[in-house]
Design a protein that fits this description.
There is one protein chain. Strand 11 and strand 12 form a beta hairpin. By secondary structure, the protein is an alpha/beta fold. It folds into three domains: 40 residues; 64 residues, Ubiquitin-like (UB roll); 128 residues, Rossmann fold (3-Layer(aba) Sandwich), CATH 3.40.50. The protein is elongated. The protein contains six helices and twelve strands. Strands 6-5-4-7-8-9-10-11-12 form a nine-stranded mixed β-sheet, covered by helices on one side. Strands 1-3-2 form a three-stranded mixed β-sheet, with helices on one face.
């Protein structure tokens, strides 16, 4: 009986030893295979295409690329996820060009307006998403929206919509300075090259159409305008410096 137990113990010992050796052999084989692959397909060149705001070095840091990875084992999905964490990046397309190159196509967000929040300027894209705070003295010519997008979310949304229509009408390219004051939608006011225009909520296409038609008459008559009020249906109120003309 005792001999039988010894035989069973020895059998279990050799079985465990055999399993351990097989696992060790598998791990060593995988390790050697990865080393061989890494030496066979080392990433030597990474090319970024389409980036204008973000530099190649910034993109490499964002993606966590060190330059010594194996091209075969790089995960395109994980790489894309890391890059898409930047608000500047809308889409990413990655192509492995064996044996040594990685090509990354970037579609960047396009600044559409400036948000002025408590004196701080932020670049915003067309859907209202903020890209980054603008630093330095250089300010690009973009419509400026003054409001708090958190407290005045509805006003901010309407201001973005108004800015889109102004762009479609060519006003953002023709004028030197456009500022949209947006708290509540019904109080939205636009300052266009110093002229105050009370716009209010909604109907922006029709209101801007009336404003454009009125501009020539104001310039021809050389009226010094205090403000223009577009909030009334089918009517424009022009208040000169001295009196109201309807």
């Amino acid at each position: 009986m005792k001999d039988k137990k010894i035989k069973i113990s020895r059998s279990i010992f050799w079985e465990i030893t055999a399993i351990f050796l097989l696992i060790s052999f598998f791990v060593i084989t995988v390790y050697i295979s990865l080393k061989v692959m890494q030496s066979t397909f080392p990433m030597q060149h990474i090319v970024f295409v389409g980036n204008k705001h973000l530099t190649d070095d910034e993109l490499k840091a964002l993606a966590g690329i060190r330059g010594n990875e194996c091209l075969l084992t790089i995960s395109s999905r994980k790489l894309s996820q890391k890059l898409l964490q930047s608000p500047w990046i809308r889409r990413v397309s990655i192509r492995k060009e064996f044996p040594t190159n990685l090509s990354v196509m970037i579609e960047e967000a396009v600044p559409f307006a400036l948000l002025d929040k408590d004196g701080h300027l932020f670049l915003a894209e067309e859907n209202g998403r903020l890209l980054e705070e603008l630093r330095g003295d250089s300010v690009p010519f973009l419509p400026i929206i003054k409001c708090d997008p958190v407290k005045d979310a509805e006003g901010f949304s309407d201001a973005i919509q108004l800015a889109k229509i102004m762009k479609g009408r060519g006003l953002t390219s023709e004028k030197n300075h456009i500022e949209i004051l947006a708290s509540k939608p019904e109080d939205i006011t636009v300052i266009i090259d110093g002229t105050v225009v009370k716009v209010g909520a909604g109907g922006y296409e029709e209101k801007l159409g009336r404003l454009i038609e009125l501009e020539d008459e104001i310039q021809r008559k050389k009226i010094l305008v205090d403000y223009i009020d577009l909030r009334f249906e089918n009517r424009v109120v022009v208040k000169p410096i001295s009196e109201v003309i309807k």
